[in-house]
């Protein structure tokens, strides 16, 4: 290949480059979608916990919170998160009318206070009273997950 052909090839190849790809922009959160997702997450937790389905109840937690609950349960000699929530749910729901449990797990019963990528939620009981304790949620990627249970209101 002649020197002139090589030079022409280099010039052509230099012009074929593209600009580096920009990092994908994170979509601006939609407040309505966030609110609904938070309500759905808390309602799912309540539903599974009251049904004694500890595995599904614990699946509503952030990975860090789940590890913490597993470690605390193990240290106490009472199994893991799923075993504890299964037993707790069965105890709490004993004698509770099925309709009460179903009503307690409705997303519209969840009252949400959101700030950025964190939120607190309280559940209104079927009788209308607000839960004494709050649930802390965090956005993890595109999901809202429970990061702590039992926060005191105030």
What does the model show?
- By secondary structure, the chain is an alpha+beta fold.
- It has one domain: Roll (Nuclear Transport Factor 2, Chain: A), CATH 3.10.450.
- The chain has six helices and four strands.
- It has helices at residues 3-14, 31-50, 54-58, 63-75, 81-93, 98-104, and strands spanning 110-115, 118-123, 133-140, 143-152.
- Strands 1-2-3-4 form a four-stranded antiparallel sheet.
- Strand 3 (133-140) and strand 4 form a beta hairpin.
- The longest helix has 20 residues, at 31-50.
- The radius of gyration is 25 Å and the shape is globular.
- It starts with a helix and ends with a strand.
- Keywords: Signal.
- This is Lipoprotein.
- Residues 1-21 form the signal peptide.
- InterPro entries: NTF2-like_dom_sf.
Keywords:
single chain, 4-stranded antiparallel sheet, Nuclear Transport Factor 2, Chain: A, 154 residues, 6 helices, 19% strand, alpha+beta
Summarize the structure.
The chain is 45% helix and 19% strand. The chain has 154 residues and is α+β, with helices and mostly antiparallel strands.
What's the arrangement of secondary structure elements?
Blueprint: H1 3-14, H2 31-50, H3 54-58, H4 63-75, H5 81-93, H6 98-104, E1 110-115, E2 118-123, E3 133-140, E4 143-152
Antiparallel strand pairs: 1-2, 2-3, 3-4
Signal peptide: 1-21
Keywords: Signal
Protein name: Lipoprotein
- What portion of residues belong to β-strands? 15-25%
Instruction: Kindly report how far apart the N and C termini lie.
Output: 80 Å
Q: How many individual helices?
A: 6
Number of domains: 1
* CATH C-level category: Alpha Beta
Q: Pairing-aware structural class of the strands and helices?
A: alpha+beta
Count of distinct strands: 4
Average pLDDT number: 83
Q: Oligomeric status of the shown chains? A: single chain
CATH architecture label name = Roll
Q: Using only CA atoms, what is the Rg?
A: 25 Å
Described by strand count, sense and barrel closure, the largest sheet is: 4 strands, antiparallel
Q: Name the shape in a single word.
A: globular
User: What pattern of helices and strands is seen along the backbone?
Assistant: HHHHHHEEEE
The CATH topology annotation reads as Nuclear Transport Factor 2, Chain: A
Physical arrangement of strands within the biggest beta sheet: 1-2-3-4
Uncertain runs are: 2-21
Helix content bin: 40-55%
